[in-house]
Amino acid sequence: MHEDRIRRPALMEKIMSAAQAAQLFKTGMTVGMSGFTRAGDAKALPLALVERSRREPLNLTLLTGASLGNDSDGLMAGAGVVARRMPFQADAALRRKINAGEVMFIDQHLSETAEQLRSGDLKRVDIAVIEAVAITPDGGIIPTMSVGNSANFVQQADKVIVEINLSAPLALEGFHDIYVPGARPHRGAIPLLAPWQRMGWTSIPVHPDRIAAIVITDSPDSPSNALPPDAETDAIARHVIAFLEGEVKAGRMGPELRPLQAGIGTIANAVLHGLIDSPFRNLTMYSEVLQDSAIELLDSGQLSMASASSITLSAAVHEKFVRDIEQYRERIVLRPQEISNHPEVVRRLGIIALNTALEFDIYGNVNSTHVGGTHMMNGIGGSGDFARNGQLSLFVSKSVAKDGAISSVVPFAAHVDHTEHDVDVLVTEWGLADLRGLAPRERAPLIIEHCAHPDYRPQLRAYFAEALKGGGQTPHDLELALSWHARYKREGSMLVK
Question: Which one of the listed residues 288, 296, 338, 359 is annotated catalytic?
Fold first, then answer.
């Protein structure tokens, strides 16, 4: 039974129920779970931990790759299982707990978690819970649709629990390239010179004796919740494509561009979708997540290959991916997130980074995490890894939110995740502002006139004129700088009526 999935016979005796495996956990433990943007996450253990918490307190520090699917984050937070969480989440119920101060959330660049575990800056992982396609004869764990931080969790953990997911096709074996850097300070360079290069193992190595439990599941990943393109995202895509055409015309890159990275979510996915009708050919991706648009670009032939840490798809595209999986085998590589997001590699490859902003200000500072400057949305994710180290850093956003009550272009960002030093290009449906080589006083008019919604441009012009009276390299009227956010909180709109 399950010999095709558990290929080391001695491990058969480790098969148990999720409820039995949940008894291995003790309150206060640090737990590393597989999962990256709703893909490759453990399905049974989170629910078993929730059920156990109904009988006894169980407060854990939970580390993952990124967000979990199947409402696991919210269910565990609601049951009091999670006391601390890092490095990224996207669950509404967990978000409420974080913003109420009931769960301590540590928002991290996605490249840093594994590095901090390795160096001892974070508490060592006690138990790793990893979803797998299969276990090899020597005990190697073959991941499913994501790698994330799984390899590092396995390397550190005293005990490893493997969830064998029967719904994950065996044909995923061979997609993964597991490479774990050595310890600092004397390790060598990461030997990756091109997105398509492989340099590691196809499974996560682990001594079989450290596998404490095997749980059999048969549950698919949660489908992507990215929305289809609309008029605004189509306009953003046109501006981005026109800009990249200009880069090619100027001789700064060829028609194959540089390797592409795109953050998760509706807008970035829609912009990549727009590349299907672009003049670019033989494109490559070196990203953290492959969404529907990446599969569509591979199918169109414009994208020759894609490297990432996770594949997160809608139900329809996932069905097609599984059906045609062999045609993607040599064109997709899944890596640990510390490699997919590693600053050394991102800078070497000259990545074109495309990420989403909640808001940005007239000088180019970007807020990608905090609504109103105080309330966490999802987290910084990998955007900072790529924005600071890529050849080109683009941030995209619709110009307004809440039916126009909120402007995404503000005098001063209420929270800054990406400073003006790491932002090259800003794009909304109204236009694009290329900030390269511009001083703050030159940036502001360009952002106002090209990116802001027309309803908000008069207010932004008036603010900038008032700020100039006080002088400075980056002029601000500090009494007015955050007045738009205060007005929205007080009146329900940033717009002066």
Answer: 288
Query: Please, are residues 310 and 65 in contact by the beta-carbon 8 Å criterion?
Result: yes
Q: Is 197 exposed, middle or buried (0-12, 13-18, 19+ CB in 10 A)?
A: exposed
Determine the 3-state secondary structure of 63 from DSSP.
strand
Confidence (pLDDT) at 86: 98
- What distance in Å separates the CA atoms of residue 123 and residue 352, rounded to the nearest whole number? 34
pLDDT in tens, 400-446: 999 999 999 999 999 999 999 999 999 999 999 999 999 999 999 99
131 is catalytic: no
* String of DSSP letters for 128-189: EEEEEEEE-TT--EEESSB-BTHHHHHHH-SEEEEEEETTS-GGGTTSB-B-----SSS---
Secondary structure (3-state) at 365: coil
Residue with tokens 């340099």: 199
CA atoms of 314 and 85, how far apart (whole Å): 26
Write the Ramachandran bin of 448: left for phi over 0, alpha for psi from -120 to 50, otherwise beta: alpha
Question: What is the C-alpha separation between 100 and 81, in angstroms, rounded?
Answer: 16
Q: How confident is the model at residue 265 (pLDDT cuts 50, 70, 90)?
A: confident
The answer to whether the CB of 149 falls within 8 A of the CB of 20 is no
Residue 330's CB is within 10 A of a number of other CB atoms, namely 11
Question: No. of H helices and E strands in the chain?
Answer: 16, 25
**Other residues' Cβ atoms within 10 Å of the Cβ of residue 184:** 9
Are 379 and 412 in contact, with CB atoms under 8 Å apart?
no
Read off the pTM: 0.97
Tokens for 375, please give them.
Answer: 């309330």
For residue 213, the cross-strand partners are 161
Sign of CA dihedral 350, 351, 352, 357: negative
How many residues would you count in the chain?
Answer: 497
Q: What is the pLDDT of residues 334-343, one digit of tens each?
A: 999 999 999 9
284, two tokens: 């490559």
- The per-residue DSSP string of 253-315 comes to S-TT-S-EEE-SSHHHHHHHHHGGGSS--SEEEE-SEE-HHHHHHHHHTSEEEEEESEE---H
Q: Enumerate residues 6+ apart whose C-beta is below 8 A from 442.
A: none
DSSP per-residue letters across 179-240: -----SSS-------STT---SBSSB---GGGEEEEEEE--PPPPP-PPPP-HHHHHHHHHH
Average pLDDT, the chain: 97
